[in-house]
Amino acid sequence: MDERQESSGDVTLSEVARLAGVSGMTVSRVLHDHVNVSEETRAKVQAAVAALGYVPNRLAGALATARTRLMVVIIPSLGNIVFPEVLRGANERFEAAGYQAVIGVSDYDLAKEEQLIAAMQSWRPSGWILAGLEHTPRARQMLREVRSPVVEVMDIDGEPIDMAVGFSNVAAGRDIGKFLADSGRRRIGYVGGNLERDLRAGKRLEGFVQALSERGIALQGRFTADQPSSLLLGRSGLAQLLARHPDLDAVYFSNDDMAVGGLMHCMAAGISVPDQLALAGFNGLEIGEAVPLRLTTIKSPRYRIGQLAADHILARLAGQTPPLREDIGLEFIAGQTA
Question: Based on the domain organization, do 202 and 136 belong to the same domain?
Fold first, then answer.
């Protein structure tokens, strides 16, 4: 074996072999966890590796196999707890299988996501996880051409590039719309962030409006802002919406952060929830359980989605055939705010 393929810094595979008193091939077998190595020999090699501070050159191995032990995960935000939970689920599965997740953050910007994909392609990752089904045409083309599994998460309303794991955002919006309308609410508004960036929130609003329309109800007013969703935006957004539409009896928020911010406005302004105004969110975050009135919302199984996305990639790499589209559903939480 060419020791340049396994060298690390100033320490080479040959030096490990000499110290352990074995061949370079035996060292390579131990490093790759080959079964045909005695425990005594394995212990000698591991002791030599530790003594010399040897680190295998994974890139050299990738050149031989056309694949690294890296898994790319591109998410829209680290500030929104939703996506770190997806990442946590995926990373646990990858680590257990001997892979390392490499993270990219697109900031809800499809052009930036495209740049990340172009840059990360050169690393020859073994798999890809991305949020949502919407990408630039060039990004879609690049992902179609990679020779590794691709899983899009948190949405199944559309055609995946390869595989998709998540839920229908349109259906989630419909469920909240039906609940509010069937509860007798008729003057209903909406508060959200930038819908041109957060495309999944836009799909939920689409389903929400559909459900209201089917019941003869029109959306009375909406507030959106070119900002990331937050408690502060939810609070100020509801205040501005109510200033224009003071007779609203229900408001749907793009997510739980925004909805909890809206609840804070109601508490400060003396608005009785849900008697005067019903509030509903989306995601089922812990903060929605911690407030004085438990938030009415829909819980997305983010951690499980991350696990399944990783499982599908690992299954494909093992020669199995995981489902191309997996809808894992949502949990409605009635709460106390609607």
Answer: no
* 335 belongs to a structural domain: no
Beta bridge partners of 224: 192
Encode pLDDT of 238-265 as tens digits.
999 999 999 999 999 999 999 999 999 9
Residue 336 in domain: no
Distance CA 176, CA 205 (A): 10
Return averaged pLDDT per consecutive 10 residues of the chain, 338 residues in all.
43 88 88 81 90 70 68 92 94 97 96 96 93 96 94 97 98 98 98 93 98 98 93 98 98 98 98 98 96 97 98 97 96 97
Q: Which domain holds residue 47?
A: 3-63
Q: Could you say which DSSP state residue 54 is in?
A: -
Angle between helices 169-182 and 199-214 (to 10 degrees): 40
54-79 tens-digit pLDDT: 776 655 555 555 678 999 999 999 88
* Cα–Cα distance measured from residue 193 to residue 26, given in angstroms and rounded to the nearest whole number: 58
pTM: 0.80
Strand partners, 327: 166
For 6, 19, 24, 33, 56, the CA distances from 38, given in Å and listed in that order, are 22, 17, 15, 11, 21
Domain assignment of residue 10, yes or no: yes
CB atoms within 10 A of CB 209: 20
